[in-house]
Amino acid sequence: MAQLVPAGSSIADIGTGDGKLSAWLAAAGHRVIATENKVGPRVDALRLLEPLGIECRLGEGLEPIRPGEVEVAVIAGMGGHSIGRILAASPTVVASLQALVLQPVQHGDELVDQLLAAAYRVADRAEIEQRSRAYSALLVLPPYSAR
Questions:
Q1: Is residue 146 predicted with pLDDT exceeding 60?
Q2: Residue 18, Cβ density class (10 Å: 0-12 exposed, 13-18 middle, ≥19 buried)
Q3: Per residue in 84-119, pLDDT tens?
Q4: What average pLDDT does the segment 51-59 reach?
Q5: Counting C-beta atoms within 10 Å of the first and last residue's C-beta, which end of the chain has fewer, N or C?
């Protein structure tokens, strides 16, 4: 996943889970804001992230992020339908992003179709194996991006 994140960009790690990706991105020099929508997982993530100076906000999807606050949103480990709902629920934040790094665990083709219909483009892909399952991670650029 991390190889698709544009160098030097500020990141929102949406649904951070255990926080390991946020920690890795911060160690690689990115400014990171993590989000989690459930209190229990957020508390668990904070154990790793707080000592590293990484903020973990409680809230659904991109709602805890202000427009223009970060350049890239990373949304991984969810179904394509859930990712699509997260993006649709925060159009102002999404419009302010320079890129999305997405890793749908199911319904990825449907998510890509939805994004292409909205004039987004898939700029890069990486194949990820996790617990003997293969997933595609995508670097998605908005319609107005020159990258």
A1: no
A2: middle
A3: 999 999 999 999 999 999 999 999 999 999 999 999
A4: 96
A5: C
Residue whose C-alpha is closest to residue 145's, from 110, 129, 121:
121
Average pLDDT of the segment spanning 57-61: 96
CA distance 38 to 59: 8
Give this prediction's pTM. Answer: 0.92
Exposure letters 103-141 (e unless 16+ CB within 10 A, then b): bbbebbeebbebbeeeebeeeeeeeeeeeeeebbbbbbb
d(CA 82, CA 71) in angstroms, rounded, equals 21
Burial of 41 per CB tally in 10 Å (0-12, 13-18, 19+) = middle
Q: Is 42 helix (H, G, I), strand (E, B) or coil?
A: helix
Report the distance separating Cα 67 and Cα 47, nearest Å: 27
